[in-house]
Amino acid sequence: MERTPTSPDYAYAPEFASRVGAILIRLLVLIARRLAGHPLLAPLTQQFIAAAQDLERLLADLAAQPPPRPRPCRVGRPSRPTNATLRP
């Protein structure tokens, strides 16, 4: 069962992920043209592709979850007494 996003922020997550992934791939193409034949090109390519996939998966998961419930504010704790306030 697929959940629909309940917040407009979550609705744009998959589109944002695909756009950032496309930007990363274009950046990779520019780097590959410059570093053609360099030994670091293969690991760099793998890292870019993995980063794009991770981002897309993360934002897809974010869009599938309901937004977090707002929590009530906590009452602040009293400050600890300092040495100056303890002296008579």
Question: How would you characterize this protein structure?
Answer:
The protein is mostly helical and 88 residues long. It contains four helices and no strands. It has helices at residues 8-11, 13-34, 41-64, 83-86. The model has no long low-confidence stretch (mean pLDDT 75).
User: Any low-confidence stretches, pLDDT <50, length ≥5?
Assistant: none
Gyration radius, to the nearest Å? 24 Å
Shape: elongated
Number of strands: 0
Which structural class should the secondary elements be placed in? mainly alpha
N→C terminal distance: 67 Å
Whole-number average pLDDT? 75
Estimated helix fraction: 55-70%
Short description:
By secondary structure, the protein is mostly helical. The chain has helices spanning 8-11, 13-34, 41-64, 83-86.
Which features would summarize this protein structure in a list?
single chain, 88 residues, mainly alpha, elongated
Give the topology:
Elements lengths: L7 H4 L1 H22 L6 H24 L18 H4 L2
